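Co-fold these.
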Amino acid sequence: MVESGKISASQAGKLLYLTVIPTAILTSPAMIFKVAKQDLWISPILAWSGLITVFIALRLHRMFPGENIIQAGERIIGKFLGKMVGLIFPLFYLYLNGIVVREYGEFVVGALLVNTPLIVVLGSMVLVCAIVVRGGIEIVGRFAELFLPAFITLFLLIIVPILPDLNISNMLPVMGEGIAPSLAGTFVLQLWFSEFITYSFILPFVTDQKNAAKSIMFALGAVILTLVVSNLATLLLLGGLTGDYAYPFLILARYINLAEFFTHLESLFMAIWVLGAFVKICAFFYVTVLSAAQWMNLSDYKPIVYPLGFLLILVSLWVAPNYQEMTRAISTSVNLSIFTVFVAIPVLLFGLACVKKAVHKNKNRR
Amino acid sequence: MIITFLKHLFRSDQLRSENAGAQRKKPHAQTELSKNLGENLQLFQAIYADCSDVIFHDFFIGGKKRAVLIYIEGLAHVEEVDQHVLAPLQKDIPQGWTLTDVRRNIAVSSIKPVTTVDHVIEEVSAGNPVLLVDREKQGFSIGLSKWEKRAIEEPSAESVLRGPREGFIESLLTNTAMLRRKVGSPNLKIKAMNIGAYSRTKIAVVYIEGVADPALVKEVMDRLQRIEIDGILESSYIEELIEDNPLSPFPQLLSTERPDVASAYLLEGHVTVLIDGTPSALIAPATFFSFVQSPEDYYERYVVGTAIRWLRYLFFIISLLGPSLYVAVITFHQEMIPTPLLLTMAKSREQVPFPALVEAFLMETMFEALREAGARLPRQVGTTVSVVGALVIGQTAIAAGIVSTPMVMVVSITGIASFMVPRFTMGIAVRLLRFPIMFLAGFLGLLGLILGVILILNHLLNLRSFGVPYLSSLAPAKSRNLKDVLWRAPLWMMNTRSTGKRNFYRQTAGQRPGPAKSDEGG
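Predicted complex below.
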């Protein structure tokens, strides 16, 4: 066994929540606004991709207990094809994580540490994540557990002070053009909700399996709720301007003005963002390292953590020449590739598994 | 090349350990006492050659048979020995006596037969006089040891306003007695052992059977038995030799001088190790939260206890991050400071030649130096240090234009905060970690600070004390145990034990007090 650690179902749920939400809060309002306009807060509620991926992760684990989607894939479509498909996951997680790391770096450099070289910001974060990931799933899970209250507190600290300034009329008309724009928004949100397939890699290490489904549904619900709240808050404050900012939620933090004394609390937002990005990068990096080690049949993943970390820094620099290119890629090619790897491949595998099972059953009956 | 070098290293290591083993091997281990008193006497006189404090008292029992009493002056109660051992044996013993008669005639309740040379040496070293009789292969150790010891006082490092004022002292027997007085049940087990090739220090492992996890007790015993050292002078010797991660700055065993604290942990299923010659008891396992709790939390009303606990958490964070936060904000995130405050701060920093990081580093080092000097110096000189210190850290430093006023304030607040951590070992670890975080904050601002905190948390999350995660109750979370972490629950709500699954319930539920229910309305 590559990993000997165990985590509880609630830790897994918290980990998934913190894996999905941070980048979603940061950029999703602007991106959904472009397609859904004032209905952007309805889109998270209709998020179908989250349900599909969670369902597949749970069902596949029930069919092949103790195995993640790559290992299950080898059983379903055979050793060779399974290995081929299995290679996609570590590579894609590395690529996706590279985007996350780059997003994090661009944000920190763009909004806060203007004179710091990008590589320093990226490198320090990846180094810290590598150190943490070496501790295994237990440590990553405990970090999620520890940071969740801090994350929620900081989130509320940004939302609550601006409540008096919200303008309800900004959300009208609700569903003025029917449900179609909101549905279109879900295709943007698919970027984040599909990441729930990560649960498949964590499920084998969950001790109390009977709570696994409950906790992940809870996490999914929490993600939807948080997105609805954050999207609504940005919409009600910024109205039609929501789409014009790269990070609308940051504007919220800037807007805070408590008793004319506490102003410019975007550092608060940076704290929330760094904490969230840290857990997200750790989770993705852990999955990369774990699936790569399993793919190469290593007995331990620790030796490949630092080399892959180095690779992660490089990938994060390679993903795009600049931030504008990257946002464009995220809404086009990355969106499609996430759909392919995180939704289409799992659905295909799951479908094949079901067919195989049915055929097997029929054979037995005869 | 490298392999031969490694082999060489390995071999020399092996050799060394063999040498050490040979040294430790006692020349007369398990040798039986001889029947001939002369031979025995010769042997012991050779062993105790040049030991002027060892007395061999030669006399005749009942005026007939020769006997020798061996004891160490100053460790044995000489008057009692004269009165209750020598007098009856020389005068009152009946004719034709046997060894049983000798035993019965000694008017001392604690008397043990000894048969081996080793055992005799051990008893004599412990202060018990040993009686050897001619023509007998058996001697007696008489429990009349008595040596000077300190009176029981209130431990100055862990003072409380309300609560017992007694503290452990240097004598192991007094300490175990104090624990026994607190926990009267026969389930309180005290296992004794000796550690130290030369010091032969007595160690007692104390736990409550049925409450403490047997695996934990075994683990503690195993780790203690693995120790091979020449002498144990303080509990920290044991601590350093049995802890889980010897490289960590954080303490992994709780040391306390208070019997009430030790008993409280015993009741929670922890194991206490008492060491002769030191007033500090070691408690295993210990979590992070045991180091930021004070016994007073439980003796005050629970609302007050909870509030003080949160105050302590707050200042714990300040003592770790105070200067770094200041450095980060003043260097990178000036916009966070409200404008009027920023203007005053800028005015004060105007003349200061150093960047905030250097300034903070300078003042923090100065503060640590003052603290250390104050702690080591005799009390009379100590006042001088504090006066000079107040000048250095305070007014003159600002007047000289070396540091700014806010910096002095930050350093002083941090100093006070670090003294709010009730356990010195934890406080000093935090003070130490403050410096690297300060550097990170100076280089990367708040981001560096957060990364530093993450690294420390990573260490804490990886750390274990006797198999128990260091941050347990919080991460991994046990909602049931948070009653003693996030708040100090009232005693009638503390129904479950925090460690182990054995004997999970510590009291009956529903003991919330209140006035008797009566039908009559007021």
